[in-house]
Amino acid sequence: MSGVELNLPLPSDPVAQMLHAFDLSDDQGARTTEDIFVGPSQWMPHGRVFGGQVLAQALIAASRTVADRAVHSMHGYFLRPGDMDLPITFSVDRLRDGRSFGTRRVQAFQKGEAIFSMIASFQESDTGLEHQEAFPADIPDPETLPSAAELIGDNPHPVAQYWAKARPFDIRHIPSAIYFTVESEQVAHQAVWIKSLRPLPADQIIHTAALAYASDYSILESIYRRHGISWSHPGVKTASLDHAMWFHRPAKVDEWLLYVQESPSAQGGRGLALGRIFNRGGQLVATVAQEGMVRVPVMAK
Question: Where are the membrane-spanning stretches (predicted)?
Fold first, then answer.
Protein backbone atom coordinates (compact mmCIF):
# COMPACT_ATOMS: atom_id res chain seq x y z
CA MET A 1 0.00 0.00 0.00
CA SER A 2 3.06 2.27 0.07
CA GLY A 3 3.28 5.39 -2.07
CA VAL A 4 -0.45 6.10 -2.28
CA GLU A 5 -1.68 9.58 -1.48
CA LEU A 6 -5.23 10.50 -0.56
CA ASN A 7 -5.97 13.41 -2.89
CA LEU A 8 -9.77 13.48 -2.63
CA PRO A 9 -12.25 12.91 0.21
CA LEU A 10 -13.74 9.46 0.53
CA PRO A 11 -17.27 9.22 -0.90
CA SER A 12 -19.90 9.65 1.79
CA ASP A 13 -22.30 7.22 0.06
CA PRO A 14 -20.39 4.48 -1.84
CA VAL A 15 -23.60 2.80 -3.05
CA ALA A 16 -24.89 6.05 -4.55
CA GLN A 17 -21.52 6.54 -6.24
CA MET A 18 -21.69 3.04 -7.74
CA LEU A 19 -25.24 3.57 -9.00
CA HIS A 20 -24.20 6.92 -10.50
CA ALA A 21 -21.48 5.09 -12.44
CA PHE A 22 -24.13 2.64 -13.70
CA ASP A 23 -26.27 5.51 -15.07
CA LEU A 24 -24.81 5.61 -18.57
CA SER A 25 -25.85 8.30 -21.01
CA ASP A 26 -26.57 7.42 -24.62
CA ASP A 27 -24.50 10.39 -25.83
CA GLN A 28 -27.60 12.09 -27.27
CA GLY A 29 -28.48 9.01 -29.31
CA ALA A 30 -25.10 8.88 -31.04
CA ARG A 31 -24.73 5.80 -33.21
CA THR A 32 -22.46 4.79 -36.08
CA THR A 33 -22.60 1.10 -36.86
CA GLU A 34 -22.51 0.72 -33.07
CA ASP A 35 -24.42 2.07 -30.08
CA ILE A 36 -22.48 4.65 -28.05
CA PHE A 37 -22.78 5.20 -24.30
CA VAL A 38 -20.78 7.30 -21.85
CA GLY A 39 -20.27 6.63 -18.15
CA PRO A 40 -18.45 8.41 -15.30
CA SER A 41 -15.48 6.98 -13.43
CA GLN A 42 -15.43 6.50 -9.67
CA TRP A 43 -12.77 7.81 -7.32
CA MET A 44 -10.14 5.26 -6.30
CA PRO A 45 -7.20 5.79 -3.91
CA HIS A 46 -4.63 4.63 -6.49
CA GLY A 47 -6.01 6.82 -9.29
CA ARG A 48 -6.90 3.96 -11.66
CA VAL A 49 -10.40 2.89 -12.63
CA PHE A 50 -11.64 -0.13 -10.64
CA GLY A 51 -11.96 -3.13 -12.96
CA GLY A 52 -15.31 -4.14 -11.48
CA GLN A 53 -16.70 -0.72 -12.42
CA VAL A 54 -15.79 -1.23 -16.10
CA LEU A 55 -17.21 -4.78 -16.06
CA ALA A 56 -20.51 -3.51 -14.69
CA GLN A 57 -20.75 -0.54 -17.03
CA ALA A 58 -19.97 -2.70 -20.07
CA LEU A 59 -22.74 -5.13 -19.09
CA ILE A 60 -25.22 -2.28 -18.68
CA ALA A 61 -24.23 -0.81 -22.06
CA ALA A 62 -24.71 -4.18 -23.75
CA SER A 63 -28.02 -4.75 -21.96
CA ARG A 64 -29.34 -1.41 -23.24
CA THR A 65 -29.27 -2.89 -26.77
CA VAL A 66 -31.05 -6.15 -25.93
CA ALA A 67 -34.79 -6.67 -25.40
CA ASP A 68 -36.34 -9.47 -23.31
CA ARG A 69 -33.08 -11.40 -22.88
CA ALA A 70 -30.83 -11.67 -19.84
CA VAL A 71 -27.05 -11.94 -19.93
CA HIS A 72 -25.82 -15.47 -19.27
CA SER A 73 -22.09 -15.08 -19.93
CA MET A 74 -19.40 -12.49 -20.46
CA HIS A 75 -15.71 -12.67 -21.31
CA GLY A 76 -13.62 -9.53 -20.94
CA TYR A 77 -10.00 -8.38 -21.23
CA PHE A 78 -8.46 -5.46 -19.38
CA LEU A 79 -6.22 -3.80 -21.96
CA ARG A 80 -4.95 -0.62 -20.29
CA PRO A 81 -5.29 1.05 -16.88
CA GLY A 82 -8.22 3.47 -16.80
CA ASP A 83 -7.95 7.05 -15.52
CA MET A 84 -10.46 7.75 -12.77
CA ASP A 85 -10.54 11.46 -13.68
CA LEU A 86 -11.98 10.78 -17.14
CA PRO A 87 -15.35 9.42 -18.33
CA ILE A 88 -15.44 6.18 -20.32
CA THR A 89 -17.02 5.80 -23.75
CA PHE A 90 -18.60 2.42 -24.51
CA SER A 91 -19.30 1.20 -28.05
CA VAL A 92 -21.66 -1.76 -28.44
CA ASP A 93 -21.57 -3.85 -31.61
CA ARG A 94 -24.74 -5.92 -32.15
CA LEU A 95 -22.96 -9.01 -33.44
CA ARG A 96 -25.98 -11.31 -33.68
CA ASP A 97 -29.61 -11.67 -32.66
CA GLY A 98 -30.81 -15.25 -33.10
CA ARG A 99 -34.05 -16.91 -32.12
CA SER A 100 -32.93 -17.61 -28.56
CA PHE A 101 -29.54 -15.97 -28.10
CA GLY A 102 -28.01 -12.58 -28.82
CA THR A 103 -24.34 -11.56 -28.79
CA ARG A 104 -22.79 -8.16 -28.14
CA ARG A 105 -19.22 -6.87 -28.29
CA VAL A 106 -18.40 -3.93 -26.04
CA GLN A 107 -15.29 -1.76 -26.19
CA ALA A 108 -14.47 0.79 -23.49
CA PHE A 109 -12.39 3.84 -24.50
CA GLN A 110 -10.53 6.68 -22.85
CA LYS A 111 -8.48 9.22 -24.83
CA GLY A 112 -9.36 7.32 -28.00
CA GLU A 113 -7.71 4.10 -26.78
CA ALA A 114 -9.42 0.88 -25.76
CA ILE A 115 -9.01 0.09 -22.07
CA PHE A 116 -11.37 -2.92 -21.97
CA SER A 117 -12.97 -5.32 -24.44
CA MET A 118 -15.82 -7.73 -23.77
CA ILE A 119 -18.15 -10.13 -25.54
CA ALA A 120 -21.42 -10.98 -23.78
CA SER A 121 -24.19 -13.42 -24.66
CA PHE A 122 -27.87 -12.99 -23.83
CA GLN A 123 -30.65 -15.61 -23.78
CA GLU A 124 -34.43 -15.65 -23.64
CA SER A 125 -35.91 -17.38 -20.59
CA ASP A 126 -35.97 -21.13 -21.20
CA THR A 127 -36.34 -24.47 -19.42
CA GLY A 128 -34.06 -27.50 -19.48
CA LEU A 129 -31.92 -29.85 -17.44
CA GLU A 130 -30.87 -28.56 -14.02
CA HIS A 131 -28.15 -29.41 -11.53
CA GLN A 132 -25.59 -27.45 -9.51
CA GLU A 133 -22.65 -27.82 -7.19
CA ALA A 134 -23.70 -27.98 -3.56
CA PHE A 135 -23.41 -25.08 -1.13
CA PRO A 136 -20.25 -25.72 0.95
CA ALA A 137 -20.57 -27.16 4.43
CA ASP A 138 -19.53 -25.53 7.71
CA ILE A 139 -19.81 -21.93 6.55
CA PRO A 140 -20.35 -19.43 9.38
CA ASP A 141 -23.19 -16.95 9.05
CA PRO A 142 -22.12 -13.48 7.90
CA GLU A 143 -23.54 -11.88 11.03
CA THR A 144 -20.94 -13.76 13.10
CA LEU A 145 -17.99 -12.35 11.11
CA PRO A 146 -16.34 -8.92 11.38
CA SER A 147 -16.78 -6.34 8.64
CA ALA A 148 -13.86 -4.59 6.96
CA ALA A 149 -14.68 -1.43 8.92
CA GLU A 150 -14.48 -3.34 12.21
CA LEU A 151 -11.18 -5.00 11.26
CA ILE A 152 -9.46 -1.90 9.92
CA GLY A 153 -10.75 0.66 12.40
CA ASP A 154 -8.90 3.97 12.31
CA ASN A 155 -5.86 2.83 10.32
CA PRO A 156 -4.89 6.13 8.62
CA HIS A 157 -3.59 4.74 5.34
CA PRO A 158 -5.81 5.91 2.43
CA VAL A 159 -6.15 2.43 0.92
CA ALA A 160 -7.11 1.00 4.31
CA GLN A 161 -9.72 3.71 4.74
CA TYR A 162 -11.06 2.95 1.26
CA TRP A 163 -11.41 -0.73 2.21
CA ALA A 164 -13.12 0.23 5.46
CA LYS A 165 -15.46 3.02 4.36
CA ALA A 166 -15.62 3.68 0.61
CA ARG A 167 -16.58 0.38 -1.00
CA PRO A 168 -20.30 -0.07 -1.71
CA PHE A 169 -20.18 -3.66 -0.39
CA ASP A 170 -19.87 -5.24 3.01
CA ILE A 171 -17.24 -7.99 2.58
CA ARG A 172 -16.65 -10.56 5.33
CA HIS A 173 -13.88 -13.14 5.00
CA ILE A 174 -13.72 -16.84 5.83
CA PRO A 175 -11.50 -17.76 7.62
CA SER A 176 -9.97 -14.27 7.98
CA ALA A 177 -9.14 -11.18 5.95
CA ILE A 178 -5.68 -10.67 4.44
CA TYR A 179 -5.59 -6.86 4.42
CA PHE A 180 -2.44 -6.67 6.56
CA THR A 181 -1.41 -10.23 7.46
CA VAL A 182 -2.29 -13.83 6.61
CA GLU A 183 -3.13 -15.32 9.97
CA SER A 184 -4.74 -18.57 8.87
CA GLU A 185 -3.34 -21.59 7.03
CA GLN A 186 -1.62 -20.87 3.72
CA VAL A 187 -4.07 -22.55 1.36
CA ALA A 188 -5.23 -21.64 -2.16
CA HIS A 189 -8.88 -21.17 -1.24
CA GLN A 190 -11.16 -18.96 0.83
CA ALA A 191 -14.70 -17.62 0.90
CA VAL A 192 -16.28 -14.22 1.48
CA TRP A 193 -19.81 -13.10 2.20
CA ILE A 194 -20.77 -10.01 0.15
CA LYS A 195 -23.76 -7.68 0.26
CA SER A 196 -24.37 -4.09 -0.82
CA LEU A 197 -24.36 -1.64 2.06
CA ARG A 198 -27.99 -0.72 1.44
CA PRO A 199 -30.88 -1.82 -0.81
CA LEU A 200 -30.52 -1.41 -4.59
CA PRO A 201 -33.24 -0.60 -7.16
CA ALA A 202 -35.38 -3.60 -8.09
CA ASP A 203 -34.13 -3.67 -11.72
CA GLN A 204 -32.44 -7.07 -12.23
CA ILE A 205 -29.94 -5.54 -14.67
CA ILE A 206 -28.66 -3.34 -11.82
CA HIS A 207 -28.25 -6.38 -9.56
CA THR A 208 -26.46 -8.37 -12.28
CA ALA A 209 -24.12 -5.45 -12.98
CA ALA A 210 -23.47 -5.00 -9.26
CA LEU A 211 -22.65 -8.71 -8.98
CA ALA A 212 -20.07 -8.33 -11.76
CA TYR A 213 -18.76 -5.23 -9.98
CA ALA A 214 -18.29 -7.06 -6.67
CA SER A 215 -16.84 -10.19 -8.31
CA ASP A 216 -13.59 -8.30 -9.00
CA TYR A 217 -12.87 -7.38 -5.38
CA SER A 218 -11.33 -10.45 -3.77
CA ILE A 219 -11.08 -13.12 -6.49
CA LEU A 220 -7.25 -13.02 -6.61
CA GLU A 221 -6.88 -13.32 -2.83
CA SER A 222 -6.78 -17.12 -3.03
CA ILE A 223 -3.43 -16.71 -4.83
CA TYR A 224 -2.08 -14.38 -2.16
CA ARG A 225 -3.31 -16.57 0.68
CA ARG A 226 -1.55 -19.65 -0.72
CA HIS A 227 1.79 -17.85 -0.42
CA GLY A 228 1.19 -16.04 2.86
CA ILE A 229 1.04 -12.63 1.15
CA SER A 230 -1.28 -9.84 2.29
CA TRP A 231 -2.45 -6.82 0.32
CA SER A 232 0.02 -4.67 2.28
CA HIS A 233 3.02 -6.88 1.46
CA PRO A 234 5.92 -4.55 0.45
CA GLY A 235 6.22 -4.10 -3.30
CA VAL A 236 3.42 -6.47 -4.32
CA LYS A 237 1.78 -5.56 -7.64
CA THR A 238 -1.43 -6.99 -9.02
CA ALA A 239 -3.73 -6.27 -11.95
CA SER A 240 -6.69 -8.06 -13.50
CA LEU A 241 -5.87 -9.37 -16.98
CA ASP A 242 -9.14 -11.00 -17.99
CA HIS A 243 -12.46 -11.83 -16.40
CA ALA A 244 -15.10 -14.36 -17.37
CA MET A 245 -18.47 -14.77 -15.71
CA TRP A 246 -21.44 -17.07 -16.18
CA PHE A 247 -24.80 -16.03 -14.72
CA HIS A 248 -26.83 -19.12 -13.82
CA ARG A 249 -29.77 -17.69 -11.89
CA PRO A 250 -31.01 -14.20 -10.93
CA ALA A 251 -29.37 -12.84 -7.79
CA LYS A 252 -30.23 -10.06 -5.38
CA VAL A 253 -27.00 -8.32 -4.46
CA ASP A 254 -28.52 -6.44 -1.53
CA GLU A 255 -28.92 -9.82 0.19
CA TRP A 256 -25.98 -11.89 1.46
CA LEU A 257 -24.16 -13.92 -1.19
CA LEU A 258 -21.36 -16.42 -0.54
CA TYR A 259 -18.38 -16.11 -2.89
CA VAL A 260 -16.23 -19.28 -2.75
CA GLN A 261 -12.78 -18.79 -4.31
CA GLU A 262 -9.81 -20.98 -5.21
CA SER A 263 -6.63 -20.79 -7.26
CA PRO A 264 -5.59 -23.91 -9.23
CA SER A 265 -2.31 -22.41 -10.49
CA ALA A 266 0.11 -19.50 -10.35
CA GLN A 267 3.20 -19.14 -12.56
CA GLY A 268 5.14 -16.67 -14.70
CA GLY A 269 3.93 -13.61 -12.80
CA ARG A 270 0.29 -14.65 -13.34
CA GLY A 271 -2.29 -16.47 -11.25
CA LEU A 272 -5.62 -18.05 -12.10
CA ALA A 273 -8.55 -17.81 -9.70
CA LEU A 274 -11.99 -19.41 -9.89
CA GLY A 275 -15.10 -18.46 -7.97
CA ARG A 276 -18.60 -19.74 -7.30
CA ILE A 277 -21.31 -17.43 -5.96
CA PHE A 278 -24.27 -18.82 -3.98
CA ASN A 279 -27.28 -17.10 -2.51
CA ARG A 280 -28.13 -17.76 1.12
CA GLY A 281 -30.76 -20.29 0.04
CA GLY A 282 -28.00 -22.48 -1.43
CA GLN A 283 -28.58 -21.72 -5.12
CA LEU A 284 -25.51 -21.33 -7.32
CA VAL A 285 -26.11 -17.97 -9.04
CA ALA A 286 -22.82 -17.36 -10.88
CA THR A 287 -19.39 -18.75 -11.69
CA VAL A 288 -16.30 -16.56 -12.16
CA ALA A 289 -12.82 -17.04 -13.62
CA GLN A 290 -10.07 -14.43 -13.61
CA GLU A 291 -6.37 -14.43 -14.43
CA GLY A 292 -4.34 -11.68 -12.86
CA MET A 293 -0.82 -10.35 -12.91
CA VAL A 294 0.70 -11.06 -9.51
CA ARG A 295 4.26 -9.85 -8.97
CA VAL A 296 6.03 -10.09 -5.65
CA PRO A 297 9.60 -8.78 -5.20
CA VAL A 298 12.20 -11.25 -4.05
CA MET A 299 12.86 -10.43 -0.43
CA ALA A 300 16.41 -10.65 0.92
CA LYS A 301 16.85 -13.34 3.54
Answer: none
